[in-house]
Amino acid sequence: MKSKKYQVYLLTGLLLCIQFPVQSQSIANDNTQWFSDARFGMFIHWGLYSIPAGMWDGKSTPDKRYINPYAEHIMLLNKIPLKEYSKLCNDFNPVGFDADKIVKMAKNAGMKYIVFTAKHHEGFAMYKSEHPYNIFDATPYKKDPIEMLAKACKKEGVKLGIYYSLGRDWQDSNAVCGDWRRNTWDFPDTKGLDYQKYIDLKVKPQIKELLTNYGEIALIWFDTPELTTLAQSKDLEEYVKSIQPHCLVNSRIGNDLGDILEMEDNEIPADKETRPWETPGTMAESFGYSILDTKEYWKSSEELIRKLVEITAKGGNYLLNVGPDGNGVLPDLAINRLNDFAKWMKVNKEAIQGTKPYSLNRKEYRGYFTEKGNVLYVHLFDSPENHVLSLNIDPSTIVKVELLEENGPKKLSYSATYGQGIIINLPKELPFKSVSVIKISRK
Questions:
Q1: What is the strand order of the sheet 219-223 is part of?
Q2: How confident is the model over 269-302, as pLDDT tens digits?
Q3: Are residues 73 and 181 in the same domain?
Q4: Kind of pairing between the strands at 398-403 and 261-262
Q5: Which residue stretches of the chain have pLDDT < 70?
Q6: Engineered SS bond to 305: which of 102, 135, 355, 434, CB 3.0-4.6 Å?
Q7: Span 103-150, pLDDT tens digits
Q8: What b-and-e string marks burial along 365-381, b requiring 16 or more CB atoms within 10 Å of the CB?
Q9: Which of residues 300, 324, 350 is at a domain's end?
Q10: 325: left (phi over 0), alpha (psi -120 to 50) or beta
Q11: Are residues 298 and 365 in the same domain?
Q12: Which of the 8 DSSP states describes residue 263?
């Protein structure tokens, strides 16, 4: 059955020309419902690469494709021999890592789940693994960050997801992928190398550890499938589900599989997608902690909040990254932005969490729409000219119109217009520089 559609116009400077379906489609896979309701999560990139932080022997990573290259790629970009790179283990004693503090910051910022890098491309496990190349056995730290995060997440009611680099592993010779992306300086000869052996001897055993030792895992966030075949992707997905049936898998398992469609880094699609999707994003340039990411490279809180709104209005999730330093501490600039999210979400989270797309939003427009039940949320990036907002919505369907503010919703006056529309009178100053939200309760 086709739903009736309304055209909505902002006639006074805030350009929104959008079609609104009255009813939103439900998600077919019940296992993904929590994910779509969450809308906002925290990505944590942390590993040995956090120690050099984008510099090796006083030189930055030589990759002209990026303003500041990903610090977590330093082993590849600088072609650091494994024997030298692994010496970072001797200096890795991140006593400043505070799982409880990080999880609380995420929760306060409105993030409903956390995805942590159990093993990135460097091949180093950030938990106590049977594979000896891990933070518990190979460093002076002798602690398991995932164990600490799992306990903190359970305490705070935040779901835990696990990142696992699939096709790239620069510690394992059998992790064969595209030549420029694999460890050719330690393992130049590919003769006799076997990717399936890598899956059987490292990937699967570590996935089993991660899914059996830390309680419920909400999501396995695979990355870089590279040369993974369709049969291998299917087998891995089935393997995950055999251990934890409700655990979601993202599309970077490869070959168009997975429960969650993963966008490219920092990519926001032009329109809604047909299945649950997510944008992994950075606050600065790098995911891993980088000393090259000085203040001028950081996105403002206003920009990040607007990205969350746009992604939510298009039916996606925003997985926003933080990168602890070599001591396990988040940069002050990241903490500042998390605190700004906390202030904004304290007032406006109802317009994000548990909402559905309500319109076809286009990037040139200065605002977006979401809905939850009988409530429509209008997200304003700027105040319209003359502080008057015109919407072509039947006034007889409206119960009340409010502006979400720190001290509680403020009732706004509105009047009917010719042609079954309304005019909403706005204050001269909106409560938030980033995004202010109008709440329209309907019958």
A1: 248-249, 219-223, 159-165, 113-119, 40-44, 316-322, 277-281, 261-262
A2: 998 888 999 999 999 999 999 999 999 999 999 9
A3: yes
A4: unpaired
A5: 1-29, 61-68, 359-366
A6: 434
A7: 999 999 999 999 999 999 999 999 999 999 999 999 999 999 999 999
A8: bbbbbbbbeebbbbbbb
A9: 350
A10: beta
A11: no
A12: P
Residues 6+ apart with CB under 8 A from 130: 205, 209
CB-based contacts of 134-140 (< 8 A; 24+ apart in sequence) = 135/92, 138/86, 138/89, 139/89, 139/90, 139/92, 139/93, 140/90, 140/92, 140/93
Q: How far is 377 from 20, CA to CA, in rounded Å?
A: 12
Strand partners, 42: 114, 320
Statement to judge: residues 309 and 367 lie in one domain: no
DSSP SS3 for 392: coil
Q: Are residue 367 and residue 325 in the same domain, yes or no?
A: no
**Distance from C-alpha of 408 to C-alpha of 415, rounded to nearest angstrom:** 22
Q: Where among 320, 350, 380 does a domain terminate?
A: 350
Helices marked H in 218-257? 230-243
Strand-pair partners of 9? 17
- Nearby residues of 79 by Cβ (< 8 Å), 6 or more positions away: 184, 185
C-alpha distances (whole Å) from 177 to each of 73, 138, 180, 195, 257 are 15, 26, 8, 9, 19
What pLDDT is attached to residue 363? 38
- The tokens describing 355, both together, are 């909402």
Q: Are strands 159-165 and 219-223 parallel, antiparallel or unpaired?
A: parallel
Quote the number of domains for the chain: 2
Measured on CA atoms in the order 250, 252, 258, 263, is the torsion positive or negative?
positive
Q: Are residues 371 and 331 in the same domain?
A: no
Q: What is the DSSP string of 118-179?
A: EE-TT--BSS--SSSSBHHHHSS----HHHHHHHHHHHHT-EEEEEEE-S--TT-TT----G
